[in-house]
Amino acid sequence: EAVRQKAIRKGVVTAEAAALLDPEGVWALLFEAGFSMAEKITDISGRGVGLDVVKLAIDSLGGRLRVNSVLGKGTTFTLVLPTSIAVKGALLVELDARAYAVPLLHTDTVLALPADEIFAVGGLLMTRVQDENVPLVPLRQLLYIEGDEPLPRATRADLLLDDALHQVLVVSYNGRRLGLVVDRFLRQQNIVVKPLSKPLDTIDLFGGVTLLGSGQLCLVLDVPALTRLFLTKRP
To answer: What is the pLDDT of residue 197?
Structure first.
């Protein structure tokens, strides 16, 4: 509860949104940039860069950081790192006739949604996944967005009116779920991720590149970066 109240005071989250957070969502606030539980700022604490830096470093290795805390007993931080940094499981998706790889580490589930299972709230498309409202965004909007403009406000009128199913990949990062709308799912496979060379290495949305069996180069999506972009650009 102390974390929840401190996040509200610092403007990290609204009181309404904080009230809806489950324990995992509350612990995720600890890793937000600029957030700190310290009451005073010193040379070693209070600036909100400690756990944020740790989280970013672990994300860059394809790992996860979990928190479990019990009042009166203590707090446990669990670091989970892949056994092989180079070879990763990935789900291949297609968008505009181009394949993209999404690391399985951050994939939650895949959905084929009819239009009647999608609703609009506050300019965002949403769906229900395991009793949770999950925002939906077309992947192409995140990849092709330019400048400082926010994402366009969405309504149900944006959905296809025919019987087509909307292919949605639900990804998860730092306790948040996000549904990425793609053209279709291709397959799951292990990939060898290579770093991007200059000047493409400055594009945050891609974590690297891999070579498919067909000889096609495939960009690897950086789910943490996509999630942060969505949170920044959401209407």
So the answer is: 76
pTM of the model: 0.66
In DSSP terms, which residues pair with 136 in a beta bridge?
A: 125, 179
Burial 12-24 (b: 16+ CB within 10 A, else e): bbeeeebeebeee
According to DSSP, residue 114 is labeled: -
pLDDT band at 42 (very low <50, low <70, confident <90, very high): low
Strands (E), the chain: 64-70, 74-80, 87-95, 98-103, 107-113, 119-121, 124-129, 132-138, 166-173, 176-182, 184-192, 206-211, 217-221
- Domain regions of the chain by residue span: 2-80, 87-233
The predicted-structure confidence for 131-157, as pLDDT tens digits, reads as follows 899 999 999 999 988 777 888 888 777
What is the third-level CATH fold of 2-80? Heat Shock Protein 90 (3.30.565)
